[in-house]
Amino acid sequence: MAINLGMKMDVGMRQQLKLTPQLQQAILLLQMNQLELVEKIQEYADENPFLEVEQTEPAKSVEATADASTQDEYSISADIATGTYQQSSGIGGTDDMFANMVYDESIKDYLNGQVDMASFNPKEKMIALTIIDLLADDGYLHASIDEIATSLLATLELNIAHSEIEAVLSTVQRFDPVGVAARDTQECLRVQLELMPEGTPGKFQALMIVQRHFNLFIEHRLTQLASKASLQTGEFELAMNLIKSLRLYPGKDFVTSDEGFVRPDVMVQKVKNKWVIKLNEHASPKLSINAYYSSISKQAKTESDQKYMQKNLQEAKWLIKSLEKRHDTLSRVASFIVAKQQDFFTHGKQQLKPMVIKEVAQALELHDSTISRITTNKFIATPQGMLELKYFFSSSLTTSDGESCSSKAVRSMIAEMVAGEVAIKPLTDSDILAKLETAGINVARRTIAKYRKALNIPAVSKRKLLAKNMQMIAAAQ
Known about the structure:
This protein is of the alpha+beta class. The chain has helices at about 20-30, 35-45, 80, 105-115, 120-135, 145-155, 160-170, 185-195, 205-210, 215-220, 220-230, 235-245, 290-295, 305-340, 340-345, 355-365, 370-375, 405-420, 430-440, 445-455, 460-475; strands at about 50-55, 60-65, 265-270, 275-280, 285-290, 380, 385-390, 395-400, 405. The protein is built from 21 helices and 9 strands.
């Protein structure tokens, strides 16, 4: 029996995008914040004799097409609010020489420096950097795993499994300060306890309290807590003191991105009944070609000198072009936002309209990743305060009249309702739902609970207990 062995050749074409050095440079400049941009431009100017940093001229106003017609934080621990939670100077109450250290950099900068030292592969490194970028100033992570995955897909076009993100997050939470990137207070305290040396007095009992009886702890129901945990008086006191020695806010000792310390990339102001944007002239240094080196480049005699001159001149031109492109993209995106959000600038956060990255990208004929990069770490000064440009992106909810409403606007309404509630009779999620329905906003009760938790607003039972504790303190005084 003869066996016929044949060879088959498939000829196909595969399209592959190759990033040129010039395109890589343009993308890099696009995503940089102000400080990074200034440092990078100076670095380029120091290395390239053809580049000259110009004195900044007054910025031009760019008129938007719109006519002119902060997320509240809430305490989540009752015992903290009533003054029963006191942090000691260091772990276990010891005199830790680093306990009261104040860092002269932001929590994000400090953590980014630790990423390079971690044993991350390239993909894990990008996940870690994205997690750090999403941290609040207090060191907590308020973004869900799903939101992190969405950010990675939109910004870096990486489709990452949730399990991979969870694994990297677990590592970041063990960076210094330990407990950073925790999603709630319980997780923050648990991570700190887990990393304490084995044999630390009270560690086992403290972990049991945090993991199994955390509600009793934050509600300061000490007698019931000791009974549930089956701890003797000495064991209980040791565990409680250990817990109270932990960091409650990992980002507390770092410089924060407070309004007073953030220079806006864009300003919004009302001029002749129209909203206009003004690009900050200090946000992006201007570059030009050095006239002297440009003239002598034509007189180069040797081939090596000619190549050197041509290379540096071309690189200088590419850099200037990339900066102009960044400037133009920022201007176009900011103008679109102002045009879309005219009611927000006039009336406040509850008038924020739903808007997603894809909508802006399609309108401006740009890639989604370009919009994501130009709105990250770029700030706009508005009548509602200093905001990151990406703040304006939010999902859509449907109102009773068929119109759309921003999810962030609904969160602002919930925060305002809770802030104005009667302390001894706080609003339930059902009460909030009824008020929103009266305002014509259709939303599920579970969504109310989700938004309330995102705002760090405790459940009604804990808010009621907090009010009672505050009354007791007031009566005692």
